[in-house]
Design brief:
With about 350 residues, the protein is an alpha/beta fold. It has 2 domains: about 1-170, Rossmann fold (3-Layer(aba) Sandwich), CATH 3.40.50; about 175-355, Dehydroquinate synthase-like, alpha domain (Up-down Bundle). About 45% of the residues lie in helices and about 20% in strands. It has helices at about 25-30, 45-55, 80-90, 105-115, 135, 175-190, 195-200, 210-230, 245-255, 265-280, 290-295, 310-320, 345-355; strands spanning about 1-5, 10-20, 40-45, 65-70, 100-105, 125-130, 140-145, 150-155, 160-165, 330-335, 340-345. The strands form 3 sheets. A 7-stranded mixed β-sheet has the order 1-2-9-6-5-3-4. It has a two-stranded antiparallel ribbon with strand order 7-8. Helix 6 crosses helix 8 (about 210-230). It is globular and about 60 Å long.
Length: about 350
């Protein structure tokens, strides 16, 4: 079992990583949150189907009610948010209550946003069940989606703790593994050249990844995320670098319809695009072709879906949270581990999208 400490200006909390980590949740609450009156557990429906009969024993000494939420991005809607708040009120949760999120990144985003707004804010604990959630469970960015943009209705609300039980990852589909690992690769590219080189050298398949290697990669990814969060909790500066690959990635994800493509699949294409832009704008010295081929070996799609309009993608990118007054900003790299935030004109974006689509 590994324990990391995530520290921000106003809050510090543990991230416990390892097989069986969930069995420490009850003791943590009893020891550190003695005033908790009631607990609302928000769990992904797929996770509940597979694990809940075994999981509920981990909360046997606690007062809790369970809300089973839709899987994936379908959970992050106004309707589900409204339904959960009604459920919590019916179950008599109050300002001394606690929310526990059990599921992937979408459930963590949803449950965290519920916690940040219910009774003007109550504490919550993250129990991520996917590789993707190693990123989203840490850092306190919580949100729901709007039809015009992903995560547009949200806030910053740090968890009290994160318990990352690696046993949940055994049931993930290959597609879900790819979605999550795109964020791990991102962490290496923006912050740690040695870590990226290790992944490039040792990671040849996502189908048979040893538990030791997986734990090592995820732990380092969380450490990197924690460093950015500690330096810039509210994304006023360097934390924006964590959005590498996300400007185009979020646009693709929205145009495909949330759930049409996974988040990580979209971000993978976004990273390739950002690397090509980095070569063009900042003279990045990096073999993008080799990187693209590596992603293909790992099973990623590395091109934009043919039916998506470049103009629609640009419109989506203008709605990105980094954009100001319609000016699209991209996280680019001057070299591996050295990100910068750059304004990119509409003309260059459309030109590069056309070249990218042709494999240029």
């Amino acid at each position: 079992m590994v324990q990391l400490q995530i520290s921000t200006q106003h809050h510090s909390y543990p991230v416990v990583i390892g097989s069986g980590a969930i069995h420490g949740v009850q003791a943590f609450i009893q020891e550190n949150m003695k005033e908790v009156t009631n607990i609302g557990i928000i769990i992904d429906e797929k996770v509940a189907d597979i694990y809940w009969n075994d999981l509920k024993a981990a909360f046997s000494e606690l007062p809790f009610s369970v809300y089973i939420a839709p899987s994936g991005e379908n959970a992050k809607t106004f309707d589900v948010y409204y339904d959960i708040t009604g459920f919590l009120l019916e179950k008599k949760l109050d300002r001394k209550s606690l929310i526990i999120a059990i599921g992937g990144g979408a459930i963590g985003d949803l449950a965290g946003f519920v916690a940040s707004t219910f009774m003007r804010g109550i504490p919550f604990i993250q129990i991520p069940t996917t590789i993707l959630a190693h990123d989203s469970a840490v850092g306190g960015k919580v949100a729901i989606n709007h039809p015009l943009g992903k995560n547009m209705i949200g806030s910053f609300h740090q968890p009290e703790a994160v318990f990352y039980d690696l046993e949940f990852l055994q049931s993930l589909s290959l597609q879900e593994k790819r979605s999550g690992f795109a964020e791990v690769i991102k962490h290496g590219l923006i912050h740690d050249e040695v870590f990226y080189a290790q992944m490039r050298s040792e990671l040849h398949t996502l189908e048979e990844l040893s538990p030791t290697l997986l734990s090592s990669f995820l732990t380092r990814g969380i450490e990197i995320k924690g460093e950015f969060v500690a330096a810039d909790e509210k994304e006023k500066g360097v934390r924006a670098y964590l959005n590498f690959g996300h400007t185009l990635g979020h646009a693709i994800e929205a145009e495909m319809g949330y759930g049409g493509w996974t988040h990580g699949e979209s971000v993978a294409v976004g990273m390739i695009f950002a690397l090509k832009l980095s070569q063009k704008k900042l003279n990045l010295s990096f073999n993008v072709e080799d990187f693209t081929q590596w992603l293909q070996i790992l099973g990623y799609t590395t091109t934009i879906p043919d039916h998506i309009s470049h103009e629609k993608l640009l419109k989506r990118m203008k709605q990105d949270k980094k954009s100001v007054a319609g000016q699209v900003k991209f996280v680019l790299l001057t070299r591996i581990g050295k990100p910068v935030l750059e304004d990119i004109s509409d003309e260059i974006i459309l030109e590069e999208l056309a070249s990218f689509h042709k494999g240029g």
